Structures are given as C-alpha cells and as structure tokens.
Amino acid sequence: MLAHGVGLCDEYPSVRCPEDVEAHGYGGVFEVGMTLSFEAYFGAVDGHEGVKLEEQALVTDHGVVQLLSYRYESAMLA
C-alpha cells in the first residue's frame, strides 16, 4: 500500500510501501485538512498486468473520513 497527497503538488506527501521506507521514507506528519489517496496494487508479483485501486480520505479532527462511496465488485477482489 502507498499513500500520497491529492492536490497541486505531484503526489506529495508520498508515503512509501514498508519495503521502501528505508530508501524513501516519509518524515512528515498528517495534518487536519489534508486529503490523501491510499493505493493498493493487485496483480502477480513481477507480472505484466494488474490493477491499482485507490481510496481518497480527508484527515479531520476526529480521524479519517473516506471520501469515495462506490463499492468494489467482488470479482475484482478475488
């Protein structure tokens, strides 16, 4: 999973996958008002095909609020 900001800056801040933290870690903090996109790639490791699913969320004083309301098709998650 990867998270990144949504806005005018190209995917900033960028929070890398755990295996990439040492080389590309994120030293910042999430702040109220930030909108983030959380990504997950589904496909074969080292494969040529797959799909990247993203969910957007808003950081609030009371936690994170999911901004998207569509449901994934179960066939895509199998």
What tags apply to this protein structure?
78 residues, mainly beta
Please write out the topology:
Layout: E1 2-5, E2 14-15, H1 21-24, E3 35-43, E4 50-60, E5 63-66, H2 74-77
Antiparallel strand pairs: 1-2, 1-3, 3-4, 4-5
**Coarse structural class:** mainly beta
The average pLDDT value, as a whole number, equals 79
Biggest sheet features:
5 strands, antiparallel
As a percent range, the share of strand residues is 35-45%
What form results from the Cα inertia axes?
globular
Secondary-structure element string = EEHEEEH
Assign a percent range to the helix content.
10-25%
Number of helices: 2
- Count of individual beta strands: 5
Radius of gyration: 14 Å
* Largest sheet: spatial strand order: 2-1-3-4-5
The number of domains? 1
Give the uncertain stretches in residue-range form.
none
First-residue to last-residue Cα separation: 17 Å
Task: Describe the structure concisely.
Helices cover 10% and strands 38% of the residues. The protein is built from 2 helices and 5 strands; from the N terminus they run ββαβββα.
Structure description:
By secondary structure, the chain is mostly beta strands. It has one domain (2-31, 52-77). It contains two helices and five strands; from the N terminus they run ββαβββα. A five-stranded antiparallel sheet has the order 2-1-3-4-5, with no helix packed on it. β3 (35-43) and β4 form a beta hairpin. The longest helix has 4 residues, at 21-24. It is globular, with a radius of gyration of 14 Å. The two termini are 17 Å apart.
